[in-house]
Amino acid sequence: MVYSITVIEKNYTKKGRKSMWDLSILGIDFYHLINWFIIYSFFGWVWETCYVSIKSGKYVNRGFINGPFCTIYGCGAVSVYVILRPVSGNLLWLYIGGVVVATALEYVTAVLMETIFHTSWWDYSEKPFNYKGIICLESSLGWGFLGIVYYGFLNGFLHRLVGLVPESLEKGLAMSLLVFYIFDFLCSFRQAL
User: Cα torsion for 144, 148, 149, 152, to the nearest 10°?
Assistant: First the structure.
């Protein structure tokens, strides 16, 4: 199946122009991708914050930005959805794809953050089979299982949940959350520099 960035022809503004909401990226409405990114960034933040807080015995706000979002999880979920959609019916390929896509994203994110900010947000150096402390076999294997859980349960549940929201409200939420996220990201980026 060949994917391309297309414009949905059914949605026009009153003046006949197409808006950013009319974009469909790889066959998926842009506003859905934004909402999924925000939701999975929030889920990732909850997971990371709970895990690290319990492990350290005190509250630790995880993620790069100040708000309750862990960007890498949002990017990872959207990337896995878009890239692995063609193999979503095959558990073996879904697992392998989850390992590869998530590990590559984790590696690229770590390298960029270390290059830009000269610091690391995670360290796997004490885990066996790690590479420079930024990726490790244990996490990579875990990402594969998470990919299966994502497609087997979370993704369908989220689609049904988001499908309950009227399209106009969903677009408004997407715009509001995107503006909030971008503002928070830019403030956090400036602070980190």
Answer: 170
**What's residue 19's pLDDT?**
65
Distance CA 110, CA 101 (A): 14
Q: Chain-centre distance of CA 102, in angstroms?
A: 10
* 8 Å CB contact between 32 and 38: no
Could you tell me the two tokens for 7? 């414009």
**Higher per-residue confidence, 128 vs 4:** 128
Report d(CA 144, CA 142) in Å as an integer: 5
* Beta carbons of 109 and 76 less than 8 angstroms apart: no
Paired with 28 in beta bridges are 25
Angle 108-78-139 from CA coordinates, rounded to 5°: 50
Q: What share of the chain is helix, strand, coil (3-state, %, to 5)?
A: 65, 5, 30
pLDDT band at 14 (very low <50, low <70, confident <90, very high): very low
Answer yes or no: pTM beyond 0.70: yes
